Structure formats: structure tokens, C-alpha cells
Backbone:
């Protein structure tokens, strides 16, 4: 009887380990790429994740944002609070066409950085004097944000015909 309990306990433990491995080893959804920065024995590693996105109101502009992502068990379950570190680069990739009215400070990208309170955002401004689009990446919280930010500019220029 004792032997059956040990076998069942070992089987349950094996199922838990395999399920945890499957959950924690899944690739990032929609990510352009990632690099591991800190090995974690349990759960996914800490990493830098890179995503690409297009400005929804400005055709011809593509942005890439990188940010730290906490691993381990808390990160794997989605309850870890990621740091406010992020970097952004935006470039003209075709003829620029503004679709609709753009407003200064308009959000073009956001992502949850903790279970409830923290969010990574990218907002756009238009520097009319210099004819340049300005993208700012930053983190905010319900009560207090972080001064860490990153900026990228895209001059609006003609695009050579093919």
C-alpha cells in the first residue's frame, strides 16, 4: 500500500513538472524576438523581448520596442512586475500618409507590465515646426509612474518612387 502511494505521488509530481515545463517554455506571442539575460532553474528565464508595431494613424512608419521581462515562476504565471526599462526605435519604411486627425500624446501602443497596476505605453507627438513625428515610450502606474523613458523621431520626408 505504501509503495502504491509513492508511485502515485511520483506520477503526480511528474505531471506537475511536465505541465510546468510546457507552460514556461512556450514562445512569446507576437514577439519579433527575445534574448535571455538571466538563467532561471524554475520557470522561464529573464529576457529582453522585442516587438514591432505600426502606427495605426500614420502609414509608412514602423516602430520596434524592447523591454525587460521577468521570468521565474512569477513571470511564467504572469504575476511578476516587470521593470520600467524600455527602448524604442521608429523609422520611415514607406511613403508617410496620415490617416485621420492625429493628436499630441495619442497612445499608439500599450502593454501590461504587472498584474494590475503598471503599463508600458508609447505615445506620439507631432513637432509641426520641424515636420517630425516624436514617439515616447514610458511606464506608468495607477499611483506613480517612472521617469525612465525612451524617445524616437521620424522626420516626414518624401519617399522616392520605385
Residues:
Amino acid at each position: 500500500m505504501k509503495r502504491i502511494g509513492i508511485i502515485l505521488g511520483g506520477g503526480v509530481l511528474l505531471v506537475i513538472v511536465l505541465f510546468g515545463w510546457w507552460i514556461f517554455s512556450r514562445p512569446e506571442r507576437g514577439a519579433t524576438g527575445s534574448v535571455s539575460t538571466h538563467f532561471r532553474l524554475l520557470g522561464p528565464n529573464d529576457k529582453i523581448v522585442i516587438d514591432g508595431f505600426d502606427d495605426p494613424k500614420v502609414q509608412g512608419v514602423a516602430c520596434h520596442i524592447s523591454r525587460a521581462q521577468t521570468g521565474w515562476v512569477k513571470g511564467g504565471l504572469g504575476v511578476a512586475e516587470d521593470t520600467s526599462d524600455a527602448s524604442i526605435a521608429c523609422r520611415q519604411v514607406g511613403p508617410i500618409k496620415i490617416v485621420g486627425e492625429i493628436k499630441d500624446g495619442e497612445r499608439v501602443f500599450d502593454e501590461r507590465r504587472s498584474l494590475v497596476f503598471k503599463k508600458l505605453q508609447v505615445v506620439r507627438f507631432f513637432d509641426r515646426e520641424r515636420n517630425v513625428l516624436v514617439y515616447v515610450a514610458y511606464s506608468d502606474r495607477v499611483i506613480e509612474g517612472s521617469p525612465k523613458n525612451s524617445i524616437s523621431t521620424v522626420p516626414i520626408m518624401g519617399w522616392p518612387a520605385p
